[in-house]
Amino acid sequence: MKGSISLLLAAAMLSLTACGEQEQTVSEPPMVRLTQVQLVSESAHTSYPGRTQAVNSSNVAFRVSGTLDRVLVKEGDAVSAGQVIAVMDDRDYKVQLSATEAEYEQVKADCERVIGLYEDGSTTAQNYDKARYGLEQITAKYQHAKDQVADCQLRAPFSGYVHRVLHESHETVAAGMPIISVFGSKGLEVVINIPASEYMQSSMFGRFTAAFDVLPGQHFPLKLVSIAQRANANQLYEVRLLLEGEADQRDVLRRVTPGMTALVNIQYKDQDEAPVEIPSGAVFHKDGQTFVFVYEPTGQERGTLHQTPVSVTALKSVGTMQVLSGLHPGQEIVESGVHHLTDGQQVRRTQPTSAENVGGLL
Question: CB count, 10 Å around CB of 241?
């Protein structure tokens, strides 16, 4: 009998001990994973591939139709503004000019006689107006015939280089059909395409630099020319940047030609103005507002959570969000699991995983 009572007392004590341990376990604050708020300018996602192109480029065409007589340049040739680069067979246009010139001389002589008679009072004002308008009409026709002959010579619109010769001699071409492609020698642009997340914060862009594989170790300053206001078919926005270069880089830049690939680095303005970047899992929505939980340490790896409203500007494809207001660099926030937490809750921070314990399995 005494043995039974002893067994019952031992079981009761074990039960009480287990309940005490369970209550103690339940009362422990939950553990959370924290991350530090960083400036966007400190992140690694500010570089985009690009390609160089000439500031000036043009597909040059004749303004008249006919047979291409001679092409005077070849691909890669340097040309000057106004230089004749191709010639069209102008035989038919010269014949037309001769006929128009003869008609012009005849109408001009007749008009001069009518004007003389009108000044003497020997003809009517109607005849005078008819002669004068007829002279204006034939003068315009004569000038057009001379322009057509002049247009049989194709001239370079600016100084630069021949990119491509699109038609050869003795081909019949129509007016406006591109004959030769020319690009200018006065400067180069670098064109990149940025996603909508970068476009939304384009007002924060500060300095741009370009690097080329063919020129290792060198970075060339760029000047923003334009940002497209409409996305292309790939939902990207085109950015054009003028390749300037410092004074001591001009000789090196001559080795850069249109069509080369480049890596463009975008640096934001002063850090006080730059947005911060946080994991997208740290954000939650409540009552139409966006919040994060800011961690305030209270000692012994414990702290209190504060529900803080934030203004999110962009969601990036790498799983982060950019925040314009509500946070500042260096603050610690809860990285994930925010939907199971409450404002003012006591929590414990998780210990960072050591390099030897990959995956936290040890």
Answer: 25
Per-residue pLDDT reduced to its tens digit, 289-320: 899 999 998 887 889 999 999 888 766 656 78
Say which CATH architecture domain 47-56+184-268 belongs to: Beta Barrel (2.40)
Write the burial class of residue 3 (CB in 10 Å: 0-12 exposed, 13-18 middle, 19+ buried): exposed
What top-level class would CATH report for the domain 29-40+274-353? Answer: mainly beta
What's the CATH number for 62-88+152-183?
A: 2.40.50.100
Give per-residue pLDDT as tens, 14-55. Answer: 555 555 555 444 578 888 999 888 876 544 446 899 999 888
Beta bridge partners of 251: none
Distance (Å, whole) CA 23 – CA 19 = 6
